[in-house]
Task: structure prediction
Amino acid sequence: MTKTTSNPYRYDRCCPPPEGRIDEQEEYRTLKKYKAYNPKTPIDTLRELAKDEDFEVRAQVAENSGIPHDVFVLLSKDKIYEVKQKMLFNPNVPPDVLDTMARSIHRPEYRNLRVTIARHPCTTTETLDFMSTQVSPSLRRAVAGNPNCLQYTLTRLAQDSKYDVRRAVISNTEVTLPVLLTILDYERFNHTPFPRNAIIELFQHKLLPTAAILVMQTLWPILLENLRNPFRQTRFYLK
Result:
């Protein structure tokens, strides 16, 4: 693209080109998208582009790491799914915006957005605790894997009826020994077969203290019994 002074809108302003010039209109659209994504673009220009009628321009603004809080709020209310999705991938999205979205998004087609919020590193413990009580198993599983979760929240999810949710608790990097033991207690009190891969994951958990490793070692005979008798699922009981 060659710079010329005859078209000031190309580089200096966001005014549209004359109607009928399709090539210059497309060039202008490309320029707006570039400005929307550029973190050095002035904030006032970003505010203007966040209201652009072209949703692709708004989506580029949503990814910009330099947008202020009020622009985040504006884009979180955008009617286009792609704009909301791009904003959630922005590492600087404010926690209060995530909380508002988590509590206000109820449309089935937006369920993936809620899962993204549950996995976001900026999501607060209060928001995660709220989302851990929702009906969707995929949402609870995403919450269980977020390191920002309170141990109280992880304890509740450790007793979840869905095994995938309990397994996500095991994989959480901030999980503690009492929470892991809660999972074992859940299996004991509910008389459910304990999946052999879960026994392996618990045994190989690298962040457990020595005491927990000793507890997990007592489960190996059960695992071996399951391997010797593939058609028999052994139940275990903690005493």
